[in-house]
Amino acid sequence: EPTVRTELMEQIPPIAIFLQESRPKFPTAFFEYLMPIVVRYLTDVNNQVRKAGQEALLILLEQDLVAQSDIENKVCPILLDLSAPDSDDEYKVEAVNIICKMASMLSRTTVEHMLLPRFCELCSDGKLFQVRKICAANFGDICNAVGQEATERLLIPKFFELCSDSVWGMRKACAECFMAVSYTTSPEVRRSKLSPLFISLISDTCRWVRQAAFQSLGPFISTFANPSSAGLYIREDGTLSIRPSTQDMNSNSCQPSNNITLMSSSTNAT
Q1: pTM of the full structure
Q2: How far apart are CA 47 and CA 66, in angstroms?
């Protein structure tokens, strides 16, 4: 019964945490018995079971409970198969969504060598606009996961494609994550390539795209500032913040020293 398999998936993370805490007693139980179940349920015929499996996998990755060898030899190959060009549409949409979500939890080497080539292919998927939209909405996170060199070499050309996509929702998603993409690039790329691209979005024929671009204008401009002098930095949750100067903190010692959040770096389009 699918409901039984779904309930089972919801219990995997707490069991895995228990096994992790009791490793001397159960040194290989998770890797031998539980991890294969999680991987298998990623391809279950029932979508609720697959969704539960995906959520369990993300929790396990977030808690750093999955071995690097299992990620590279078991998880990534399954996701690459599910997101292949000839894969079922529903499976492909789910696969690209989980690839984007797990990118920030994996090592840069793993993302760049195993997942980035497929992500670039999915950005140009001509069959499903839903796939391209997921890629556009999570573009900034992928750039942050792979760093400047891979972003400028492989991702910026794909970003240009998405920014000129015929579907306005794609262009809007690009405008919303523009600051996060810009933050990952060099000042020269920012000036010579991204600035003209942003002008095209702020002049877009669709008012929703223009509105999103205007909302991202300030955060995009802030990426041109010198972080050390401006006090700008990106939080772990992807928001652009200002770190108060020592002088300001001393003069307002009675005030809370909370950082000021300007705007989220990306908004997941629905």
Answers
A1: 0.78
A2: 23
